[in-house]
Design a protein that fits this description.
Elements lengths: L4 H56 L16 H29 L7 H4 L2 H7 L17 H10 L3 H6 L8 H17 L14 H5 L9 E2 L1 H12 L14 H25 L10 E9 L24 H10 L9 H6 L47 H8 L16 E13 L3 H10 L5 E7 L76 E13 L17 H6 L10
Parallel strand pairs: 1-2
Antiparallel strand pairs: 2-3, 3-5, 4-5
Helix pairs in contact: 7-9, 10-14
Amino acid sequence: MEKMKPFLNFLKKNWFWLSSGLMAILLCGAWFLAASALQQAQETDTQALNGKITELENVLKTSADGLDPSVKAHPNDLSKEGMDQRLDAGSKAVIDAWKLRFEAQQPIMVWPEEVLKSPEFVKFFARFSPPEAYEKIPQESVSTYLQMYTREIPKRMPEICKIIGTKWDAEEAEKALETVNRGKDEQGGRREGGAGGGPTAASSTDLGKQGSVVLWNKENQKLWLEKLTKFEGFDGNTQKFATAYQAFALQQDLWLLEAMFKVIKQVNGDADANDLAAIREIDHIAFGREARANLAVLSEVDARLADASVTDSALAAGAAGSATAGGMPSEDEIRKNDPFSAPPAAGGEGGGAAVFEKEPPAGFEALGPFHGRYVNANNEPISVKDVHDVLKLASTGLPEQNLELLVAKRVPVRIALKMQENRIPAFIAACANSAFGFEINQVRVNRHKPGEGIELNGGAKAKSGGGGGGRDGSDRPSVGVGGGQGGGSGLDGGGSESEAPSGGAGSGSNGPMIAERRTNLIVDVEFSGIVKIYNPVNEARLKPAGDSADGAATAASGTARPGSGRP
């Protein structure tokens, strides 16, 4: 112990310096270890960042297959999974909306068994849906059904007319018109101030329609009567009765007519008399090839209508002068942009749009009722060959053109009404909210002529039947003084041009007058647009070719339910 005392005394005297040196050594060791760990972590993170940068550079150098090199792709599983989810969600939304619209139309799109009285007929035709997809429907094996359809389907019209409280009296109106024409011939075609012994045009219009809530122009009724009875000579048909495709097209028109009448009924509400109804007269109604409205031609507002100081006589004189001067498009301007119009005469100015061939291409004569019946997004008629190529059962995947035909067919619509001006928005809204979703794209107030440009089957036959009403260059505004129902003057009825007072300002519907002088809300309005007829839902066609080619034809043909009464 005595030997340890000197050493302990040394530690006791120098413990501070000894502990300070030891602490310095420990701190240096700790610093060295920490610096090594930080350097190692830095190297690890640097390698990781360099790897990410290299991966990003590789992605940016990769182009999408089949696209321009400037279009970059991101080939990684995460983005692919997210894109697949988005595509599946979008496809499901389209299918759900498609089913909703298709099912909403089914209560109307039913073959009228109460008229045909043949469940076998309904079962047979329910197999062909949509009919444009089939290259041939065995005509010879269903001739009995077709003869029955041709004979019985006109009986459906009175039932449809009951929806709006109008009378189906096309045959009586045709006889009355013959009587009127005979009276004109006997009197040399002249009447003085509307007086005369024979019936007037206005009285013949109302003949047989007393008690109707809505009046329907007799000329347009005659056109529909011809649609229901005239089949021979149209669309390659050589028989007195309709072909299968003519029956499908006609039935489609009747379904659309029924849907439009329900719209009119909705706007008129509980009105039980013509003078109480918001919509009082139907001037014309047409679908498909007959609804030959040209939505591209718009005219300037008639400047004379903006000046209340213009006298009636000056307005009438100006209207009788030049239709073009009043802001109305000339016949040449209309034809120039009308794909349905006939080609210009030799040496004339060429049209601005390609003329659509009214006759179907060779090999598609039987499908003729659907040639030019449907239009694309630009309101241009579609050839029946293009319609068939998109819808035919052997097709798979998405078509390159007319993609919308997979889901729905766009049918042109024209309807002209005599109605209350303040109810026009309600009518347009009711059209959009109907089961068929009529889309009104153009409205003309006091601008159209009765039956203008409407021809049976779109003029597919040289001799058009009834309801033609071509343009004669005398089209002009028909803003007049309102009168009482069944006579009087102005927009609410009124006589012909020959019945106008000698003062110059015609008081009939053909006598223009400034809008500020009107005494009621009744105006003549023409609505033009399209209606979509939805096909049975076919999910397989919405996927790219090769994804699910199997069952595409089954999905297209298996949606028809035999015996359901639906197409």
